[in-house]
From TrEMBL:
Gene3D superfamilies: Medium-chain alcohol dehydrogenases, catalytic domain (3.90.180.10), NAD(P)-binding Rossmann-like Domain (3.40.50.720)
Keywords associated with the record: Metal-binding, Oxidoreductase, Zinc
Annotated signal sequence range: none
Family of the protein in this entry: Belongs to the zinc-containing alcohol dehydrogenase family.
Organism: Triangularia setosa
One GO MF term: zinc ion binding
Top-level taxon in the UniProt lineage: Eukaryota
Name of this chain's protein: Chaperonin 10-like protein
């Protein structure tokens, strides 16, 4: 006879009590599991900028308190009866990524699922597909969760089946720490380069903002695709020094050394501009610079989320005459189940050395982890649950 878990299940989550408040470790109850969901014991979760937007209250339609987290890694504890991947077993190591509607033509064709018509509401509103939540406080008050189909800032998470990325075997503890950010930050940077822009070895590429997304883009360009000219731009010298070690051929410190970033990129490219540009910062001025430094036929990809209301100025005539393109890319336009194993393989071959950019913090130290990430002391913080 098959027995499932008995609800409610008490666990602990790192929740945001109200917009603008700090993350707080709080006991919560998991009230139920839908047939298309799994329970996952979270081992690690990466910290990503979108979690901070939930904390500051910058995401619309979220009811507080809520549980953030969307770069989880862990082990399967329970499997709902209609979960379609019958190869999944209790105890399997899994990484967690975004969810999608599973019904529109992009979802049906996996073409990719990041173009799902319901991508923003399903992933950012901190609720199940039908708007409900499976979590409450101990007194029964609802707690929002299911962020990106996973809310991985908890010891046990209710995960939608489409957020599950099964790993080829049970992974070691340190691998679960290392690979947790694959499901958002790393696939976003690497997917933008490998799946969307696809530069050839002789194309010229510039990456603005050397956080974890920028480093993933740099590794994909310089080490996986072996692009010969990759320019890294940031404000923190330590990150640029590290970018050189990862294959950046030129670096520009836009904070102190160089006032005219576009002019500097033009100098490096012999006045021609770049073929491909990626912005991970979402800063309006940087997006403008990214479009301005494109050469004939170049494509600029916005990957970092700007705050609400940001406007930019573009010289429309030059944009047209030079046949420039500016695109938005969400989650690298990848299908995580297919793409993440490729990145893990690249890591094993030494071409995606993410072990050199992340640091693990105990969950109690989350505020220190955020401060270290925001000051540029570290590139990627991963919290251990
Ligand atoms: Zn869809
Ligand atoms: Zn993210």
């Amino acid at each position: 006879m098959k027995t499932g878990p008995t609800f409610p299940i008490e666990t602990e989550a790192l929740l945001v009590p109200s917009p603008g408040s700090r993350f707080t470790i709080t006991p919560v109850l998991i009230q139920n599991l839908r047939p298309d969901e799994l329970l996952v014991e979270i081992q690690y979760s990466g910290l990503c900028h979108t979690d901070f937007l939930l904390r500051t209250g910058h995401l619309p339609n979220v009811t507080y308190p809520c549980i953030p987290g969307h770069e989880g890694s862990g082990k399967i504890l329970a499997i709902g009866p209609t979960v379609r991947d019958r190869t999944l077993s209790i105890g399997d190591s899994v990484l967690l990524s975004f969810t999608s509607c599973d019904k529109c033509h992009h979802c049906s064709a996996q073409s990719p699922t990041t173009k799902c018509k319901l991508m923003p509401p399903l992933n950012l509103s901190c609720a199940r597909h039908d708007g409900t939540t499976g979590y409450t406080a101990l007194d029964g008050t609802p707690v929002s969760g299911h962020f990106f189909g996973q809310s991985s800032f908890a010891k046990i998470a209710v995960v939608h089946e489409l957020s599950i990325v099964k790993l080829p075997q049970v992974m070691k503890e340190e691998e679960m720490a290392l690979y947790a950010p694959m499901g958002c930050g790393y696939q976003t940077g690497a997917g933008t380069i490998m799946n969307v822009l696809k530069p050839s070895k002789t194309d010229k590429v510039v990456i603005f903002g050397m956080g974890s997304v920028g480093f993933a883009a740099l590794m994909a360009a310089s080490q996986i695709l072996e692009v010969e000219t990759v320019i890294a731009v940031d404000l923190v010298q330590g990150k640029l020094t590290l970018a050189r070690e990862f294959g950046a051929t030129y670096t520009i410190n836009a904070g102190t050394e160089v006032k005219d970033t576009v002019g500097e990129i033009m100098k490096i490219t012999g006045g021609k501009g770049v073929d491909f540009a990626v912005d991970t910062t979402g800063v309006g001025k940087v997006v403008q610079d990214m479009i301005a430094c494109l050469g004939q036929g170049g494509t600029a990809a916005s990957v970092g989320a700007p705050p609400p209301g940001v406007k930019i100025e573009v010289d429309a005539g030059t944009f047209f005459a030079m046949s420039k393109k500016w695109i938005g890319v969400v989650e690298g336009e990848v299908w995580p189940v297919e793409f993440i194993p490729r990145l893990i393989q690249a890591h094993k071959e030494g071409k995606f050395p993410v072990d050199r950019i992340s640091k693990v913090y105990p969950v109690m130290d989350i505020e220190r982890a955020i401060a270290d990430m925001e000051s540029g002391k570290i590139i990627k913080a991963v919290v251990k649950f």
